[in-house]
Amino acid sequence: MIRSLVGAMVLVALASGALADPLEIRIGYLGRAGGKSTLSLLAQPAENDGIAGAQPAIEDNNTTGRFLNQRFALDDVRLKEGDDAAKAALSLVDRNVSFIIADLRTDALLQAADAVRDRNAVIVNAGAIDDRLREQDCRGNVIHVAPTRSMLADGLAQYLVWKQWKRWLLVVGSHPEDKLFGDALQRAATRFGAKVVQSRTFEDTGGARRTDSGVTLIQRQMPVFTQSAPAYDVLVAADESEVFASYLPYRTWDARPVAGSAGLVPTSWDPAHDQWGAEQLQSRFTKLNRRRMTALDMQAWTAARIIGEAASRTNSGDAKTLLAFLKGPDFSIAAFKGQRLTLRDWNLQLRQPILLADGRMVVSVSPQEGFLHQTSELDTLGIDRPESKCKLN
Q: Which CATH architecture has domain 17-147+270-352?
């Protein structure tokens, strides 16, 4: 009788799927080996910048997955300079990876996306902020969690306009990415009613400032570079190359605040952010990694979590099924920013607030009060639907 009872229990368990193997959803992380050097020694990126955020998100996915008979796994692949991103992406897909979280430069990201387009795989962009990836070079198999330059610039502009700091001295670096951010800032000024009273270019001459005379050189150079400007309220710097912006605060000729690439910085996440439950995530991350959570960490966390959310809601691991859900009206994700985030269906960009931080505190969060939109106030940040050049395949 006992054997019969046990047999019946096994049959019930099998019928309910309790003893079935869990559905495994493999997620790849395709990143760059080595981080970009920064001017400040305090801001040097860790070797695990980005992937460190994806790992606790995988744990969160598995917590829910245990109830749904799903299991998530993370494959970490790093590319050195010159490595083939398309080949690396295909290698991940060959290992049954359906989603690839990518922290790649723009061209490498496009190569990876095109390589896996017909392989039922989705790229989740966690690092590249180029607007063209969501516009003329958008891809139907690429979701963007990282904000765009235009979103960052608009978030900053809204706050500066709200403060009535409408006259800007714009200083742009000489590298291509600096100019792209400078263009985004100029667009934001025009869009929200600010005025660039003058634009200046800071040429990168390649000189080293970490020398015995470095402080003296900077103290003499920056006031001279910023003098004789038309009357302005705030100096706005575009320096993604990390050449000059961090040297501007407290060294300008006129006593003015600095924003943009230094001073008040627009970002998707900041280690000081503690609102809307963020302190719990920050504490957990610090305990695991013995460092603070960066914007790239949070973007990777969000990328992994949206995959887990879609899998739990659809009870599927199929990339096409999950992508269809993410593009639909029922998807949203909580990410400790005061509201649930959704996907723009016209270019697959994640709507999200932009934090404005000064290195020690979060000063404000955009969109700012009074900047309205007929669909979502988050769509006041970045390229809106009527402006979009994206034609998804």
A: 3-Layer(aba) Sandwich (3.40)
